[in-house]
Amino acid sequence: MLNPKEIFVRTDRCVGCLSCTIACSVEHSKSKTLFDAIWETPVPKSRVYVQWVEPDGKVPLVCRHCEEAPCMYACISGAINRDENGVVITDTDKCIGCWTCVMVCPYGVIGRHLEEHKAYRCDRCPDREIPACVNACPTGALVYDTVDAFSGKVRKHASRELLRAERG
Amino acid sequence: MPPGSCFERKGDNVAEDKSKYIIVGASAAGMAAAHTIRQHDGRGSVTVLSEEPDTPYYRPLIPFVVSGKKRAQDMALSGCGPFTGRDIFVRTGARVESVNTAEKTVSVQGAGGLAYEKILFATGSRPYIPPEIKGTHAKGVFALRSLADARNMVKRVETSDHAVMLGGGLLNLKAAFALLERGLNVTLVVYSPEVLSRLMDPEDAVLIRKALDRAGLKIKTGCAATHIISDRTGVTGVALDPGGEISCQMVCIGKGVRPNAEFLDGSDVRIEKGIVTDRYTACSAPDTYAAGDVAVTFKPGSGDRIMTALWTNAVEMGRCAGRNMAGVKTAYSGTLGILNATQVAQEPFVSMGVVHTTDQDFEVYRHATETTYRKVVFDSQGTRLIGAVFIGDITNAGLYRYVMRGKMPVTHIKRYIIDHTLHYGHVMCGKT
Questions:
Q1: In what helix (H) or strand (E) does residue A102 lie, and over which residues does it extend?
Q2: Which class in CATH covers the domain with range B346-428?
Q3: Hey, what CATH topology would domain B141-255 get?
Q4: ipTM of the complex
Q5: A contact residues 43-102, partner B, Cβ 8 Å cutoff
Q6: Which of A64, A137, B357, B397 has the fewest CB within 10 Å, making it most exposed?
Q7: pLDDT tens-digit profile of A18-32?
Q8: Cβ of A100 and B312 within 8 Å?
Q9: What is the DSSP secondary-structure string of B110-161?
């Protein structure tokens, strides 16, 4: 696994426009265009969620593809696997819709496809270079980067803030 | 060898007489341990001894074999999720008769001894057949536990049109639905006042009961089987207390399980019904460990001793044991005694933690609609979430488990919990 990119969330940037959820639904539709996607049955599902926290917090939530993925270890049918890029994938053929993954995921980012009786989640858009949600985010609240690069930027930002505070 | 492959050997083909790690039992706990050992020790030999003739498989899928929706080869463990390690020797048909912890050897039936440096007992459990039910040896009486049981049930289905299920637990419900899908008439006989009595109070089960009724399952509650009537052809009926008889060609017993710990009788491994483990999954004898259904472990909050028979717990404990065996000392976090999610008759539900609240001093909130029901249980002070039942809508169930297991103070998020609107954003934004 070569230092793969991940989707990072910057809650301070999110304005709650839901562009990510629409882009995700469209990407996971049959037609892959917004105007056709809205007429599809079953309605295409978004794998990214934006939650609201009082008084005005917006929190985009998406599968973290955890290192110690509780869903993968809990799955009772062998449907959840990690691919060579570190992406945790739900194999819909093997999924029996028992919802054990839903019961163990603390982030609440595994959806239940009621029509198909299958669990679904972020697949990091295997057909795209940049995941659709990240691509659609107009404010940079979703960032697609390696852990090293992203944490580097966070450190740099924090250092700048520190210096600024020191200098008054 | 490609990743995820195992060597599989028959019990009579003894190539080695020692293995650094021996694992007794090749289901969730045993195989999770084997693959975890591999992550930390790439070289030490790992031998898994399985009594069953089949190579390791996802046991929870066996009702799908009964219904005909899955084939045995679709259920293989090897190569899936947690089971992708290499060079794990699995010997099927290898029944361990006894263990000598002083000499560090195990005796395999018909195949002699095998020496180990570290050993894991992951022998699981077997169905409990109540002795007060007479005639359970008749042909056509089943307790669905293994792939072999499922295959035998499938054969019997061909000559049956009515099955009686004894016990209203989850496994028996799944078996009942598998038989319904096969076109049989199915009657569920339950001694308790309602189905799923281990997972919820009777008044919590209303929606599920309705869904079961709608699905065509006949249910008799408050009723016990006294004996199984049979003739040359096998089962012909079940006699009930308080009176009455149901004619049937198949009986399926789902009355809970008992740990498979008898092979340790006379050894110095401490047994209290199951095999007693410490915080690091070790047993009382040196270099012995236990995990899964056979292990006596503890609840995270109270530290009370418990045994559970859940796949998810078995994998978790097996992984912890694997780390400890490979020298990475890891404390087991313990487990909630009740931790079930599933869907029966189109009704999804989750049951976690303390769910029996009748006549108990807990703070309990219930909410029912036409299609959903929830009950959340706080301790008597109302400061900690200790249990939840969600039926119909199981959104974010994992987060509630997280709050429960982490014994998080809930004052700031309590109303979200009660309203079932809690989401990870509340946790992230420090609303705890």
A1: helix A100-104
A2: alpha beta
A3: FAD/NAD(P)-binding domain (3.50.50)
A4: 0.91
A5: 49, 51-54, 57, 59, 61, 70, 72-82, 94, 96-102
A6: A64
A7: 999 999 999 999 999
A8: yes
A9: TTEEEEEEEEEE---EEE---TTSBTTTSTTEE---SHHHHHHHHHHHTT-S
